[in-house]
Design goal:
alpha+beta; about 180 residues
Length: about 180
């Protein structure tokens, strides 16, 4: 009988601490939820909502920034056949690009001049160069430092449309901006 009592006492000494720890941890969880005043609960809820709103705002800004960067690089400036002057209908694109570079002081860009397939390679290289410089000069007139933009001509070497008609050629006569540093 003493032996059974001793075993019971040993088992109780081993199990009781585990049981006590589990009870105190449950008590803390309950106490955390139950012990708050309505004002504290409201404050915690307001903080949670503010964090969620800030996270949503941050995600939205990141999406807008990504879209602006893509537009900067993917909205090309188009030219008329055998011309390098900036068309009136293309000026808004260059203003957007200038605004982008102004608001992103570390951005540097390469202004690429392109031509359609008509004309000799030498002529198209020179025309592509004039188109790139024309776009760069317009950006400089809007306040973007020329040192942040370099120009290059690809002539007819990098068409976006390989067709052999006016619709294709009009897409290939362009100045294209590529971000080189951020």
């Amino acid at each position: 009988m003493k032996r059974n009592g001793l075993i019971f006492l040993l088992v109780a000494l081993l199990v009781l601490p585990v049981f006590a720890v589990s009870l105190t941890s449950c008590g803390k969880e309950v106490k955390k939820d139950v012990g708050l005043t309505d004002e504290e609960k409201a404050r915690l809820e307001a903080e949670r909502r503010a964090k969620e709103a800030e996270e949503a705002r941050r995600r939205q800004l990141m999406e807008q920034e990504k879209a602006a960067k893509e537009a900067f690089q993917n909205e090309h400036v188009y030219f008329d056949f055998d011309k390098y002057n900036i068309r009136k209908d293309q000026e808004a694109k260059l203003r957007f690009k200038a605004d982008y570079m102004t608001s992103h002081a570390k951005v540097a860009a390469e202004v690429q001049g392109h031509c359609d397939e008509r004309g000799t390679n030498a002529y198209n290289m020179a025309l592509g160069d004039r188109r790139a410089h024309s776009a760069k000069n317009f950006m400089e007139s809007l306040g973007v430092a020329g040192s942040r933009m370099k120009t290059v001509s690809y002539g007819e070497e990098k068409p976006v449309d390989t067709g052999h008609n006016e619709a294709a050629w009009s897409k290939n006569r362009r100045a294209q901006f590529v971000i080189t540093a951020e």
